[in-house]
TrEMBL record:
Pfam family, one: FAD_binding_3
Organism classification: Eukaryota, Fungi, Dikarya, Ascomycota, Pezizomycotina
Domain of life (superkingdom): Eukaryota
GO molecular function: FAD binding; monooxygenase activity
Protein name: Monooxygenase, FAD-binding
Domain FAD-binding: 176-465
Membrane-spanning parts: 125-146, 175-193
Keywords from the UniProt entry: FAD, Flavoprotein, Membrane, Monooxygenase, Oxidoreductase, Transmembrane, Transmembrane helix
Organism: Penicillium expansum (Blue mold rot fungus)
PANTHER family per record: MONOOXYGENASE, PUTATIVE (AFU_ORTHOLOGUE AFUA_2G01950)-RELATED
Record domain DJ-1/PfpI: where: 12-158
Length: 484
């Protein structure tokens, strides 16, 4: 196939599974370029030829392409081409073509080896998205900076390094992210953002991770998010799957109503309803964060936040800089001062607080109806929460409560409740608090963002505490995947 040499001849390589946009976008641009150059030109600036690995190409979007010529024919006439366009496709398909040394890879190699006979008409090879993997496999990227789809940068680097001819490909589009706080929200964000290949550092003020907390309800909307984080299986094994929630009258334990949970929640919402010890949930998230490659530092107390530089200074003077700084450091957040700069955010004390305790299961017997007024956890523990008027002053930690006071407060309640209180080994008086509604969770620079209790601390309601930090994490990840 011969062409008038005044036009540059561009070949578009297509193969089964080729991405339609990778192929059609450049083809559209090339076919219209000559109009922008000279509307009166008698000949187009480019002659375009599709080169197919088979007679009919099935694209990734089920669109069929009938190529102008076969790969075999194009290889025999390759010196007639000035430009070769190599689109991408699903990584599994591209990898298979590279690994098998297919004719698709061979024509790329042949084109790379062609001599340039005319310095005024240099040969050019273009790749789109994962098409860069073909160039890497040819050693063409040696000493160059290259990129591809942001999820497959490591795969491109691996292909290039196997050839032994290429320096490490720059990972453009990845961000250095620092998260302050390794609680539930911080770890969830770390997992999700690290899975998008961002560099992740998590700073936790505590000197070590400890098994703190008590029972957490995990409703179906939270369980769905846990599956997205890749921790559904281990959590489902540690959690209790309650069959129902029963509402009883306070003075005599008479049943008022019952909400079925298992298997009802799974049938209606697609996910079950869990109860789990906070320590177990945190441990699973922590293990997952390590697994995906997040760097987690303990005893890393943040003493100062620099919003304009999106950096933090630790108490030992260490500075951590980032492209994005995430505050997941709770209701008394220090990072929040970089977002709300003109005042201290008000922490609003709820008029109610709660006694929280865990009762060892071995202390119970069937005659005491342990299902009454409590929720079961693994580890043979019973989660016991009793809300009442009162408060824990803001600024003071949740502290030990007097069991005598608890007995006195509930002495006229259902006798089963009184019997359970008699089994309580120790008790915590737990604060309920929230913060004022913030106008924004993002600093003016766009480099600092708040999640979890640092942005929207709220009082407990219907087990919806856990979903909120996970939902903000999900929105955060969705926003940052817009910048690959």
């Amino acid at each position: 196939m011969a062409f008038h040499r005044s036009a540059l001849h561009a070949g578009f390589l297509v193969f089964d599974g080729v991405d339609v946009l990778d192929f059609a976008g450049p083809l559209e641009i090339f076919s219209h370029v000559h109009y922008g150059m000279d509307y009166t030109a008698p000949d187009p600036a480019f002659k375009l030829t599709t080169i197919g690995a088979s007679d009919v190409i099935s694209t990734s979007a089920a669109v069929k392409i009938i190529p102008d010529v076969s790969v075999a024919y194009a290889r025999s006439k390759l010196d007639e081409f000035d430009i070769l366009v190599v689109p991408g496709g699903p990584p599994s398909i591209v990898y298979a073509l590279v690994k098998s040394n297919s004719e698709v890879l061979q024509i790329v190699k042949d084109f790379v080896r062609l001599p340039c006979e005319d310095s005024k008409r240099p040969r050019t090879i273009l790749s789109i998205c994962t098409g860069a993997h073909f160039l890497g496999a040819c050693g063409l990227l040696s000493g160059l900076s290259a990129t591809t789809h942001h999820l497959f940068l490591d795969d491109l680097r691996a292909i290039c390094e196997r050839e032994g001819r290429t320096e490490v490909v720059q990972a453009r589009g990845r961000f250095a992210i620092v998260i302050v706080g390794a609680g539930i929200a911080g770890l969830a964000a770390a997992i999700a953002l690290r899975e998008k290949r961002h560099q992740m550092t998590v700073l936790e003020a505590a000197p070590q991770f400890s098994d703190i907390g008590a029972g957490i309800q995990v409703p179906p909307n939270s369980v769905q998010l846990l599956r997205q984080l890749g921790v559904y299986e281990p959590i489902s094994k540690l959690a209790t799957w309650p069959r129902s929630i029963t509402l009883k009258r306070w003075e005599n334990g008479a049943n008022i109503t019952k909400t079925p949970l298992y298997p009802r929640m799974d049938e209606v919402h697609g996910y079950p309803y869990f109860l789990i010890h906070r320590g177990d949930l945190h441990k699973v998230l922590l293990d997952r964060a390590y697994e995906v490659g997040a760097e987690i530092k303990v005893d890393a107390f943040v003493s100062e936040v620099n919003e304009s530089a999106s950096s933090v200074i630790l108490k030992d003077g260490t500075v951590h800089r980032a492209d994005l700084l995430i505050g997941a450091d709770g209701i008394k957040s220090k990072v929040r001062k970089a977002v709300v700069t003109d005042r201290d955010v008000e922490i609003i004390q709820d008029p109610n607080c709660a006694y929280r305790t865990l009762i060892p299961g071995e202390l119970l017997d069937r005659t005491r109806r342990p299902h009454h007024g409590v929720s079961h956890l693994q580890r043979s523990l019973i989660n016991f929460v009793m809300c009442h008027p009162g408060s824990v002053p803001v600024g003071q930690p949740n502290g030990r409560a007097s069991i005598d006071d608890m007995n006195e407060r509930y002495k006229t309640w259902d006798p089963v409740i009184c019997k359970l209180i008699a089994l309580v080994p120790q008790c915590l008086k737990w604060r309920n608090a929230e913060i004022e509604k913030l106008e924004t969770w993002v600093a003016k620079s766009g480099k600092v963002v708040l999640i979890g209790d640092s942005s929207h601390a709220m009082v407990a309601y219907m087990g919806q505490g856990p979903p909120w930090p996970w939902k903000t994490r999900l929105h955060l990840v969705n926003a940052w995947t817009m910048f690959p």
